[in-house]
Structure formats: C-alpha cells, structure tokens
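Hey, resending since the last one bounced:
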Amino acid sequence: MRMVDIIIKKRSGLELTKEEIDFVIKGFTSSEIPDYQMSSLAMAIVFNGMNKKEIGYLTNAMLYSGDTISLKGIEGIKVDKHSTGGVGDKASLVLGPLVASCGVKLAKMSGRGLGHTGGTLDKLESIPGLTISIEKEDFIKQVNDIGIAIVGQTGTLVPADKKLYALRDVTGTVESIPLISSSIMSKKLASGSDTILLDVKFGSGAFMKNIDDARVLARTMVDIGDELKRDTRAILTDMNEPLGLAIGNSLEVIEAINTLNGNGPKDLVELCTKAGAIMLMQAKKVETLEEGMKLITSKIESKEALDKLAQMVKAQGGDESYIYDPSKFEKAKYEYVVRSSKEGYVKEINALEIGESAMRLGAGRATKEDTIDLSAGIILNKKVGSHVEVNEELCRVFTNKEDVSSVLEDIKESFKLSEEKVDVGPIIYEIIQ
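The structure tokens again:
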C-alpha cells in the first residue's frame, strides 16, 4: 500500500477503505508518512469530503492511535464540552467552574489556538505557574477532589490528532467537516467522559460560515457519539460577531473571571447559562432546562463558581490570587483606541477580521512555531445593535508591537454600521440531540 495511491484515490473523489485509512493514520503517527503527503491528503479531503463510513473509520483510527483514558475511578457521571472554535470564545473557562460548582464532574482536554481562534490552553497559561500537562493519575485525582480539570492532551493520547491538528492549522485545511468531526470526537471519546456537549459555531468568525453547514457538522458528531454509546448533544451558536467583549488570551481570562463575578457580557452569560443547564441535564443533576439555568445562575450569585476556578488554578500549580485580583495580569506595552468616523447602529462586527487582527497583534499563531503574546488583544466597546456616535470609541487594542497602524485600520473596517436600528438575535439558535 502506498500513500501516493491513497492521495490520488481521494483526489479522484473515491471512497477510502478502513485498511487504507488505518494505514494513513498509523504511518503519519509514526512519521513514516511525511507532513507534505498528509497535507496533500488533507487538501483532497477538504475538496472531496468523506462519507459517513469513512468519517467513522477515520475517527476510530485516530482514537486508537495512542492511549485512551478510563475515568471509571471517578464517581458519578463525567461531563465534557467542546467548542468548534470562535473569536473571543472563553466559554470553557466559565462553564467548567459553573458545572463543577453544581456538583458535576468535568474532565476536559482542550486544544491550543487554531488559526484566528484562540485555544483554551493558551488562555489558561496566561495565569502564572499554571500547567496544562498533568499525568493521567493526577488528572483523575484532581477531578475526584475538586470536580474539575482542564488539561492538554498528552503525547500518548490521540497522537495522530495532535500532529494533524497542528498541520491543518498552517496548510489551509481547517474548514472540513470530516477532519473537524474526527478530530474533535477522537479526542472527546479518548478522554473517557460519559457525556459530551458540542458548541458548534457558525458565522464570519467560525469555521462553519452558515448554519446549514454547522448543522451537518453537529449531526455528524452527535451520530458518532451516539454510535459509541455516549450521551452527545450539540448547540448551534452565532459567531457573526466575537463572543463577549474580549479577544486575546489574558484579556479573555479576565472576562471569564468578571463573568463568574456576575459582571459578564450578555451574550457570554446567556451561552454559558443555557449550555451549563444542558450539561446538568446530561449529568442527571436536573430534569429541565429551566431548573438547570436557575441552578447555574445561583452559582454565579454566590461566587461558588469563581471559587471553583481558583481551586482548579491552584491544583494545576497556578497563582490563584490572579482570580481574585485580575489587575495582576501582565499588561501590553501599547494601548490604542479605535474610534468611529460616523454615526449609526452596529449591524455587524466581522469576527473573522477581528480574529485575524488579534493574531497580527500577537494574540494568535500564523505558523506552528509562533510564540503567542498572552497580553495582546482587543476589548470591544460596542456590540451588534449598539448605537455609535461620531468619534465614539469602538474598541481598545493592546499589543507589544510598535507599528500596528494597518491592523488598527482593519479593525475599524470590521465594524459595519447602519442608519436603521438593528435587531439582535439569540446566541443559541438550535439544540441537536
């Protein structure tokens, strides 16, 4: 069997067999198949897709490319949550402590930044001392002790995905339902949780640009989970503007802290309240969405969820004092204000342009080797539906780079104004189960 023949077969739009897919994943994981050939196959998959059977084979091959984790040593139902990636998406930093403070166990393995979206691990590492590399035994003990752990996948857990994830980021092969679904579900299934909630985003700042594609991706992943007897559900959420107000690693951690303090932006609070309620239903903690939302809200009001975040940070070697005093986070050297040149209502904030601008400021990776500036980013002052006066502040920009004039101009252009008042839609459009 030769990799070049498999590439040509998929380039021609033909179905790959289980044996061929197993050969690819095994060879790529062991480095017998080089990056350039895997990039070629990934591009062929982007153009020609995969059917349901192929996606199942690919997920299974990646799932068993390394170790899997058994969470049988943790009492109760273990929940997990995953987002397909979006600009300003710090929901895991809010949701994790929320559900854990409700007495539900959350054992989560997260990823790093992919393209213009930020990764949960990068955000967590803006907290001094915090480590995302934890041995499996310690991971299980931490979830047992405090109800929550958010860590990176180890080199032995789904190593095929770890390699492919980084490769897709820099070869223009991120936007593919087969590759996204197999990547997400292989990690989620390997990490051993009993339930999975998928936050599938659509819009300008998401990999799925429209709700129809997002629905297909969500249904594909829910079907994979159901096939393997995991309670898997999905929500379709709007990413036609950034989530919340903060874009950038430490800035998003600060916003997550503010949200757990009861001062979060409306869209982030709505998303986390409803998603948290679904996770509580999956864990059999509550029977209805309304009951779950009420319990989630009470944990914000009591500050129990904030305390839970501090416990997690401390358990993973971080300085928990930053959770109670976010002013301690390192600040970028330069701060700029972007102002509106006209009056109107904000009808769109192009999340893709905002995300790419934040990456150019230093907040994301353009290549695998890039180092992230954890203090760089953008704080929005206006959201869709807001009224704006001439010369009014649209956002603030933080960076350690000296010349960012072109980035500032692009950020300004990402705000689209209308003379007419703009209606604001819901953050969650649909629940799939």
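The chain is about 45% helix and 15% strand.

Sorry for the duplicate.
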